[in-house]
Amino acid sequence: MIRIVLFALGTLFLGLGLLGVVLPGLPTTPFVLLASACYLRSSRRLYAWLLGHRVFGRLIRDFQEQRAIPRAAKIASVTVMTVMVTISAVFLINPLWLKLLVVALGAAGAVVVLVLPTARPRTKEEPVGEPPPDMGTR
Hints:
Blueprint: H1 2-22, H2 29-42, H3 44-52, H4 56-66, E1 69-70, H5 71-92, H6 96-115, E2 118-119
Parallel strand pairs: 1-2
């Protein structure tokens, strides 16, 4: 039963992370990291897929190994959030209260990303992490 709940949460977090790519103020990085933690305990196949993903894989491995995210990911995340929040607040949203809400959520998302430690750069010789061998398949 716990695996089913973790699988559902992982899928929800991954969906929120993907929405964060296009929605202002919704950070991608923390949601992808939460999804990987849920999939690690519920679905070896989806966890391996996330680890092998060309964008998310390195981010997840860096976080697992260093409990940090790369500087480039932080810069990209905060930059995209800032641009999207600014565009939304200036051009797309009319009610003042909604503008303030979007700006507040964007600021909260940026704080979440910036508070996480910054990963040291990975050298080319460092091995890529693998999923744990003792986990059952799903």
